[in-house]
Amino acid sequence: TNISLTCVAEGDPEPIIKWRKEDFKPMNTLIGPTEVYENKVLELLKISRTDMGAYLCIASNGVPPAVSKRIVVGVEFPPMIWIPNQLIGAPFGSEVILECLIEAHPMALVFWTFDGHHIIPGENYNITTERNEYRTHMRLIVKRVKPGDHGNYKCVANNHLGEGVGSIKLFVTNRERSPMIVKKIPSQPLN
């Protein structure tokens, strides 16, 4: 989908209109990616979530001050999830942190499940959630890992456009036991 933003300014002499993103990131315009675009109409091509943010229309004619107008562009999309570590081993009695990174707009309703059951923070679990713009960083802290914590954890995110699910497998190891060799295989020369 393409969108057009229009900026009209009057003055004597006639003002020059330039567009830029407030965060100075390049804009995907008719002339290709550019940081500054000179025209009354800014056409953004194939808009995606990376095009979200504030755009500035700046009008100047050499007579101070230049004037600007801020326009915020939002792009709606269903939740997308990234799991940094999908398989985690933790010793019995330790604390382990499971992480989930989510992008969604509008913001998603987010939660954790364990073996299909909704996780509620409390004695065994703590949940932290950091949000900014359209990103959410969610952490599930499993306190004092026990054998019953072994299993499948899911990070779930929902908005009106869809659902995203990320999976993490946690396995619990016995802290008291050191690694042992089950069977020693003699080395053989390579031919």
Automatic annotation (TrEMBL):
Ig-like domain mapped to chain residues: 1-68, 78-173
SMART domains xref list: IG (SM00409), IGc2 (SM00408)
Range of residues in the leader sequence: none
Gene Ontology cellular-component terms listed: neuron projection; plasma membrane
Main location: membrane
Gene3D superfamilies attached to this UniProt entry: Immunoglobulins
Subcellular location: Cell membrane
PANTHER family: CTX-RELATED TYPE I TRANSMEMBRANE PROTEIN, DPR-INTERACTING PROTEIN ETA, ISOFORM B-RELATED
Protein name: Ig-like domain-containing protein
Lineage of origin: Eukaryota, Metazoa, Ecdysozoa, Arthropoda, Crustacea
